[in-house]
Design brief:
369 residues, mainly alpha, 2 domains, two-stranded antiparallel sheet, two-stranded antiparallel ribbon, 11 helices
């Protein structure tokens, strides 16, 4: 959950300093998430036993366990990877975000639908493996701006087989977020020995929210994903505002790029929502955007992402001219640029369709003699 840069700036929870934890992170970052699942399952159970299920010391293990499950088995045609030395990135075709980064679809088993009380499920989740199955069985279609989406209407048994791991990943990530949120709200800087974790926890909240949004997106809960990405964006913007505009540092460059990504992710999710329907969250039933305004809202986030990308590229050029090592960050910025271009292409197609519709010649009625 913590990257190498953060480890130099923040005091990390004990589990994040464990060699097994770092080994698991390297496995996930190198595309070997399947091998990391067992590591993080073991670490999580140790943390729950030692500190308690809702302790701040367990938060990193909750997230990384869920993250490893989520990234273990991407569906055919999708590449799920981790970059940014700890930040999540999902590589996929620009018009299909619905099935991206599906969480360990081939590892589903009867005990994987666990609650935070079910320690046996944590211990057993990695023991049995299932060979790959088709991601979607028996679907209807729904029109979105990003293409034709799918609504899974398979049997309950198939639904469980397809979604159990993503739901488990979601539960683990949401548990982590809940722990971080409660910790930051309740910690007393004058009386808590764990106050040193505050900076780390504040830094991790947007990453955890982004991971939750990724899982929501893979479950085709695009309104929930957009809502979660919006919350992550607020934290990203706060972090960015802490830097001086004249600063030339990798951290400032990363912060700018992360704001770009957050904006474009929101735009993607809004465009992935069904045409002609309000954008409404699943549980709270809050209306985020009216149907008639959905594309305009997506365009607004896209415009902000594009403007921020220009600023990010300018900063990267200034740092390169000063001899800074920006190779890794350059790759992440290129990926963010691809995301922005993908949304831009969708919006351009919508504009073209609207223009064609407005310029269609009106057929004149024939004269009656």
């Amino acid at each position: 959950m913590a990257d190498t840069n953060n480890s130099r700036r923040f005091t990390l929870p004990r589990v994040a300093r464990d060699p097994r934890f770092r080994a698991g992170r390297k496995l996930v970052q190198s595309g070997q998430a399947e091998q990391a699942v067992a590591l993080f399952a073991s670490l999580l159970e140790e943390c729950r036993t030692t500190y308690g299920e809702a302790h701040i010391e367990a938060a990193p293990a909750y997230y990384e366990y869920g993250n490893a499950i989520f990234r273990a088995f991407p569906p055919p045609g999708e590449e799920v990877e981790e970059s940014d030395r700890g930040e999540s990135s999902v590589s996929k075709s620009p018009h299909v975000r619905d099935a991206a980064a599906a969480a360990a679809e081939r590892r589903a088993q009867d005990t994987s639908n666990m609650t935070t009380d079910s320690a046996d499920a944590i211990n057993n989740h990695h023991i049995e493996e299932v060979k790959p199955e088709n991601l979607i069985t028996g679907v209807d279609q729904v029109e979105t701006e990003t293409g034709v989406g799918t609504i899974d209407e398979s049997t309950d048994e198939n639904d469980t087989a397809d979604d159990d791991d993503r739901r488990l990943a979601l539960e683990m990530m949401e548990t982590c977020w809940s722990i971080l949120d409660e910790y930051l709200a309740s910690v007393d800087s004058e009386s808590s020995a764990e106050v040193s974790y505050c900076s780390w926890a504040t830094d991790q909240v947007p990453r955890v929210l982004t991971g939750i949004g990724d899982v929501f997106s893979s479950l085709q809960r695009h309104a929930d994903a957009a809502d979660t990405y919006c919350r992550a964006l607020g934290h990203r913007q706060t972090a960015l505002e802490a830097f001086s505009e004249k600063e030339l540092s990798i951290e400032f460059l990363q912060s700018r790029r992360r704001v770009v990504e957050a904006n474009v992710l929101i735009a993607e999710e809004l465009l992935a929502c069904p045409v002609g329907e309000d954008v409404v969250t699943s549980e709270s039933k809050d209306t985020l955007v009216q149907a008639a305004e959905r594309v305009d809202f997506a365009r607004g986030y896209y415009d902000r992402a594009r403007d921020q990308l220009q600023e990010t590229v300018l900063l990267m050029g200034q740092m390169a001219a000063k001899g800074a090592d920006i190779q890794q960050e350059k790759e992440d910025i290129c990926f963010a640029s691809t995301m922005v271009m993908g949304v831009g292409m969708i919006l351009a197609e919508l504009d073209e369709q609207a223009a064609e519709k407005n310029t269609e010649p009106v057929k004149k009625k024939g004269r009656h003699k």
